[in-house]
Amino acid sequence: MTQQIQPIILCGGAGSRLWPESRGQRAKQFLRLAGASSLLQQSVSRISTPDFAPPLIICGPDHIAPIHDQLQGQDYRLLVEPAARGTAAAIALATAYHLPTTDMATPLPMDSAQGSSPLLLVMPSDHIITDIPAFHRAVTEAAPLAQQGWIVTFGITPHAPETGFGYIAAGEPIDDAGFAVTRFIEKPSQRNAEAMLAAGGYSWNAGIFLFRADRMAQAMTQHCPAIYQAAHAALHSAQHDHDAKQNVILADATSFAAAPSNSIDYAVMEHDRRVAVVPVDMGWSDIGNWSAVHALAGKDAHDNAVTGQAWLHASHGNLVRAGGKRVSLIGIEGLAVVVDGDDILILPLDHSQDVRLAAQQDASGA
């Protein structure tokens, strides 16, 4: 890469699908779910090379302290959004931060080549990538497309007809590096997922993007001006806490509250005519539920993944996270047992998507 890339790490959300461990300040990105370090620590580690600038981390007020705690000694900046408004507003903040003098009244042509504008790599803080070299190669291949004014998304090579992911349909090839995106498909039915896998040319949407800052500003000015204007105003009136452990920028709450809540896919990606996809097989997982944690974890000879003190007899295919307690299973198959303080979750792994029901009960105090 000839131009150093600026990583933007989205560190919001509560990760309720991994209740009871993930909640409040102990959100999913701060947990050690696959390996000895947290998902946030792994996200920062994978961009800790000379090709990347120190990351800008977008977070909410409740996550400032755990980020500082987990990234001690690291070089990073925090941009704090006062309220959750979805990925579009978070990306608008990051974009406006890197273009403080952008004149929103005169957007750039979509195919303009502004080599001086920084390249922003947006990625979630709570995903797993096991093949880091493949990730770096994909970013290197995508950089020229982004410099040419394409908004690049990275499509994960699908290995099963998953219905829990969005899909990206690839069209005409671009410079042997990627493909023009023809459409985005929301979480499909099983039948449609199987059809897309059989047809080829589709990939999973991982929510990782690379683009020029000025290009995204132009796209947002065109497709979601209210979101970008609110983010721009929130930064104009932001407070800078230079006495903190790291440089912390606090976006103005009143200005930011005017931003409509929306995802970047709905607000920009589905409407813009210069969106490209770079397919990549890099051992990606969003670790979206306890079944995914079980799939990634090291296992014993009976396919049990165990963390903490547990004794299993005649039991197969279980996930046990004992949380400081002693857990015993006898004659059990395919269960998740997750202990967190006084909360204990027990459910079949193939019902992992239903954990949100328990998280909602917990939040309601019932």
Question: What does this molecule look like?
Answer:
The protein is α/β, with parallel strands linked by helices. Helix content is 28%, strand content 28%. Strands 6-9-7-8-12 form a five-stranded mixed beta barrel. Strands 14-15-16-17 form a four-stranded mixed β-sheet. Strands 5-13 form a two-stranded antiparallel sheet. Helix 3 (86-97) crosses helix 6, helix 3 crosses helix 7 (225-236) and helix 6 (213-223) packs across helix 7. The longest helix is centred in the middle third of the chain and has 16 residues, at 132-147. Mean pLDDT is 91; it is low at 102-114.
Brief digest:
The chain has 366 residues and is α/β, with parallel strands linked by helices. It has helices at 39-45, 64-70, 86-97, 132-147, 190-199, 213-223, 225-236, 253-256, 264-269, 290-296, 355-364; strands at residues 6-10, 56-59, 77-80, 119-124, 128-129, 151-156, 167-174, 178-185, 202-212, 239-241, 248-250, 275-280, 284-285, 305-313, 319-330, 335-340, 343-348. α3 packs across α6, α3 crosses α7 (225-236) and α6 (213-223) packs across α7 (225-236).
